[in-house]
C-alpha cells in the first residue's frame, strides 16, 4: 500500500459503486477494501510470471492498458504513474486522470532507475530501445483525458511540459489522524530514520554512505530490489528493519531524531507522515518534498544530491531547535480530509453526476496502475 494505492483507496470511498480495473492483480498485495472492487484485469495478468516480474513486460504495458474493456461506463478515473491514463475511453464518457507522474523512466529520471543493481546495463540498453515508443504513447493518450489532476506542483509542471496541458493540483491523502505525535511529546530518540522501498531512484545509497561508520545511528524500514546491495554496502551503525507494520512505523516516526529522505519524488507521503508525528525531515531540495517540508521550519533541504551534502544537512539540523507542534501543523495541509474536500469540489464543478446518490443509471470506473 504505497502512495498510489492510498489515493485509489480514497477514490473508491468517494465513489462506493465504482469498479476497479488494473493491469496486474497480485492478490493480497493491497487491502481487501480495494481487492473486492476489482472488476477486470488486462491481458498482461495472464502472461507467465506477470504478477511477480511485471516490470519485464514494460513494452507490453500500452497494449495491456488498451485491452481493458470499459464499455458502458460514463466516468473513467485513471490513477496513473505509467499507462493507466492510456485506457480506451468509451465514446461520450468523461475521463479524469489523476497523475502521480508522467512515466519518469522514459522522460527525465532514467539514470536514477538504473544507477545500481544487477543487470542495470542491459536494462538501460533495453529501455533506450523502447523509450521512444513509450513516449509517443504517453503523449498521444494525453489527448483522451478531459481533466488532469496533478499530485503536486512538481507534477503539474511536468504535465504542462510533456503533455502541453493544464492540471488542477490535488495533494495526495496522508492519514494525519493515524500518524500523530506521541501523547507525552517525548524528546527525540537516538536514531535517524529512512522509510522507503529499496529501489535505485529512491537513492537510499546516499543515506547508507552518509551514516556508515559514523557516530549517528540510522534505521532503514522497507524492502526492495536493492536490499542485498544496500546490506553489503552498509556498515554499523546502519540497521535494516525490513517491512514493518503501520503501528511499528508510527512508533519509529515518533521516536526518531529526524526522517532522512534522500530521493527526488513527485510528492512523497513519507515526509508528511513523519511531520504528522512531529518530527523534522532532512530531504533533497528538489521535487515534491520542497512543497511539503519547509526549509528551516519543519526540516532541512540539502543540495547537491550527495552523501556529503546530506551529512551537512544533518549537522545543520542538530544545531537547530524544532517545534513539534509547528511541524505537525504543516502536515495537516496534506490530510485525507483536505484531499476529499478538494476532490468533491472538483467533481461538483466538472462531473456533478458522479456525486449523485439518486442517479443509479451512471456507472463509475477506476482504472489504476497497481
Question: What does this 3D model show about the protein?
Answer:
By secondary structure, the chain is of the alpha/beta class. The chain folds into two domains: 205 residues, Rossmann fold, CATH 3.40.50; 140 residues, Rossmann fold (3-Layer(aba) Sandwich), CATH 3.40.50.2000. The chain is built from 16 helices and 13 strands. The strands form two sheets. Strands 2-1-13-3-4-5-6 form a seven-stranded parallel β-sheet. It is globular, with a radius of gyration of 21 Å. The N and C termini lie close together (10 Å).
What is the compact description of this entry?
This protein is of the alpha/beta class. The chain is built from 16 helices and 13 strands.
Topology:
Elements: H1 3-14, E1 19-22, H2 32-35, E2 38-41, H3 50-53, H4 61-67, E3 75-80, E4 94-99, H5 104-107, H6 110-113, H7 120-141, E5 147-150, H8 153-163, E6 168-169, E7 191-195, H9 204-211, E8 217-221, H10 227-233, E9 238-242, H11 246-255, E10 258-261, H12 269-276, E11 281-284, H13 289-292, E12 299-302, H14 307-318, H15 324-331, H16 336-350, E13 364-368
Parallel strand pairs: 1-2, 1-13, 3-4, 3-13, 4-5, 5-6, 7-8, 7-10, 8-9, 10-11, 11-12
Poorly predicted residue ranges: 358-362
Please indicate the count of domains. Answer: 2
Radius of gyration: 21 Å
CATH architecture of the largest domain: 3-Layer(aba) Sandwich
- Please, how many helices? 16
| Helical coverage, percent range | 25-40%
Structural class: alpha/beta
Mean pLDDT: 91
Q: Determine the N-to-C terminus distance.
A: 10 Å
Largest sheet: 7 strands, parallel
Main CATH class of the largest domain: Alpha Beta
Number of strands: 13
Helix and strand sequence:
HEHEHHEEHHHEHEEHEHEHEHEHEHHHE
Strand order of the largest sheet: 2-1-13-3-4-5-6
Inertia-based shape:
globular
Strand composition percent: 15-25%
CATH topology of the largest domain: Rossmann fold
Amino acid at each position: 500500500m504505497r502512495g498510489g494505492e492510498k489515493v485509489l483507496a480514497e477514490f473508491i470511498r468517494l465513489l462506493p459503486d465504482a469498479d476497479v480495473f488494473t493491469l496486474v492483480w497480485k492478490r493480497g498485495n493491497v487491502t481487501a477494501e480495494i481487492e473486492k472492487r476489482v472488476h477486470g484485469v488486462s491481458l498482461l495478468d495472464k502472461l507467465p510470471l506477470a504478477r511477480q516480474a511485471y516490470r519485464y513486460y514494460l513494452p507490453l504495458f500500452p497494449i495491456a492498458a488498451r485491452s481493458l474493456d470499459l464499455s458502458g461506463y460514463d466516468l473513467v478515473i485513471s490513477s496513473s504513474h505509467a499507462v493507466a491514463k492510456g485506457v480506451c475511453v468509451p465514446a461520450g464518457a468523461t475521463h479524469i486522470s489523476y497523475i502521480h507522474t508522467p512515466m519518469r523512466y522514459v522522460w527525465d529520471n532514467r539514470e536514477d532507475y538504473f544507477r545500481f543493481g544487477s543487470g542495470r546495463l542491459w536494462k538501460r540498453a533495453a529501455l533506450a530501445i523502447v523509450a521512444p515508443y513509450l513516449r509517443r504513447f504517453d503523449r498521444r493518450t494525453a489527448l483522451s483525458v478531459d481533466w488532469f489532476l496533478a499530485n503536486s506542483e512538481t507534477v503539474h509542471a511536468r504535465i504542462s511540459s510533456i503533455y502541453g496541458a493544464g492540471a488542477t493540483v490535488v495533494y495526495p491523502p496522508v492519514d494525519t489522524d493515524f500518524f500523530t505525535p506521541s501523547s507525552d511529546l517525548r524528546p527525540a530518540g537516538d536514531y535517524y530514520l529512512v522509510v522507503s522501498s529499496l529501489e535505485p531512484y529512491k537513492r537510499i545509497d546516499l543515506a547508507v554512505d552518509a551514516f556508515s561508520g559514523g557516530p549517528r545511528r540510522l534505521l532503514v524500514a522497507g524492502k526492495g530490489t536493492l536490499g542485498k546491495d544496500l546490506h553489503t554496502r552498509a556498515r554499523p551503525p546502519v540497521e535494516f528493519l525490513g517491512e514493518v507494520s503501520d503501528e511499528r512505523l508510527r512508533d519509529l516516526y515518533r521516536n526518531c531524531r529526524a526522517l532522512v529522505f534522500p530521493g527526488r519524488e513527485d510528492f512523497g507521503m513519507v515526509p508528511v507522515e513523519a511531520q504528522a508525528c512531529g518530527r523534522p525531515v532532512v530531504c533533497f531540495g528538489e521535487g515534491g518534498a520542497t512543497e511539503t517540508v519547509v526549509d528551516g521550519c519543519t526540516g532541512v533541504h540539502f543540495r547537491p544530491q550527495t552523501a556529503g551534502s546530506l551529512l551537512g544537512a544533518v549537522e545543520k539540523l542538530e544545531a537547530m531547535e524544532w517545534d513539534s507542534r509547528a511541524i505537525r501543523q504543516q502536515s495537516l495541509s496534506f490530510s485525507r480530509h483536505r484531499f476529499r474536500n478538494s476532490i468533491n469540489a472538483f467533481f461538483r464543478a466538472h462531473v456533478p453526476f458522479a456525486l449523485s446518490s439518486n442517479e443509479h443509471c451512471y456507472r463509475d470506473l477506476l482504472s489504476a496502475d497497481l
